[in-house]
Amino acid sequence: LEVLVTILNENDNSPVFAQPNLTRDIPEDTEVDTAIVAREELSATDADLDTIYYELTTTVQDTDGYFAIRGVNNPEIYLQKALDYDKFNSTTLLLYARDRPVTSPDHTNTATARITIIIKQSDTRAPWFLPCNYLHNDTSVCISSPYSGRVNISEMSTDPLLLEPGPIYAVDPDYTISDRIVYSIVGGNTDEVFSVDADTGNLTMNKVVTSPDSFLLQVMATQVSNIRKYSVATVEIKVINKSNYAPYFEKGIYNGMVFVGLPQRSFVYQAGDPSTPLVITAMDEDFPDV
To answer: Which residue intervals define the domain Cadherin in the entry (predicted)?
Structure first.
């Protein structure tokens, strides 16, 4: 008697990842749709020779949607949305491998791989002139104010000029790179009156100013390692007459009077003269016509 015995395959093996823990470093400016981890590194095997079904999730809040797999049977991980180092610089992904579809009512065996993604900051932003204020609390954009200063006509200062709201200074906002900044004047420097120190940003004079016309300088801050990353700030230099005297009030004490019940912005009158508004004036011997 010949007996034919057929052995039925029992689903008694779980999928297995060759590397259940992976770490990848990727630049912040990685292009969308770039493969992050290859299919060959993530494919699981199953001793039952079942078809493997994959699912990718993230464990870090607010990092959904940035990474995805090519398909339910293709575990290659790719970048689905542009990265921003200021929003997050690392995340952990969980890749599940199942030997049955997610919706299958049959017994399912599952394996899990953990993929750690570390984002490296890229040189994506131009230098910031300080001080500056973030735009609507967005730490990726910082708005600086123009610089301003004064020089005396027909007088040459040998010290760096004092500017408001502070000295010329710029930084690389990609702070993990922190490229060195160099400075140059690229506009508004009539007759080459001013110079800027390439390393410190200090503004100095080369010659005296003989005209009362103001200067509106354009100072450029450039990254040393990437000259395509630069910013330009304006520096207004006003030319004034030298001041040797302090202003003074015409009187040492002024006396005024007001009436009860008057509305806001009503005049204060001179004491003893209710028909003449109180006027407080000062003079300056340096500027007799002002």
So the answer is: 18-129, 145-249
**CATH code where residue 72 lies:** 2.60.40.60
pTM beyond 0.70? yes
Residues of the chain scoring pLDDT < 70: none
Report the pLDDT value the prediction gives residue 104, as an integer from 0 to 100. Answer: 87
DSSP-assigned states of every residue in 227-243? TT-EEEEEEEEEEE---
To the nearest 5 percent, what fractions of the chain are helix, strand and coil? 0, 40, 55
Q: What is the pLDDT of residue 103?
A: 87
Q: Is 249 helix (H, G, I), strand (E, B) or coil?
A: strand
Torsions phi, psi for 92 (to 5 deg): -125, 125
Number of domains in the chain: 3
Question: Does some domain include residue 83?
Answer: yes
Distance CA 114, CA 23 (A): 8
Q: Angle at the Cα of 32 (from 29 to 34), degrees rounded to 5?
A: 95
What DSSP element (H or E) covers 40?
A: helix 39-42
From 56, 89, 120, the end of a domain falls on 120
Q: Please tell me whether residues 19 and 106 are part of one structural domain.
A: yes
Per-residue pLDDT of 234-259, as tens digits, reads 999 999 888 788 999 999 999 999 98
| CB-CB contact of 46 with 15 (8 Å) | yes
Calculate ∠ Cα 209-202-161, nearest 5°: 40
Predicted confidence at residue 290, as pLDDT, reads 75
Q: How far is CA 279 from the centre of its chain?
A: 50
Residue 106 sits in the same domain as residue 51: yes
Tell me which residue range forms the domain holding 163: 128-240
Does residue 2 belong to any structural domain of this protein?
A: no
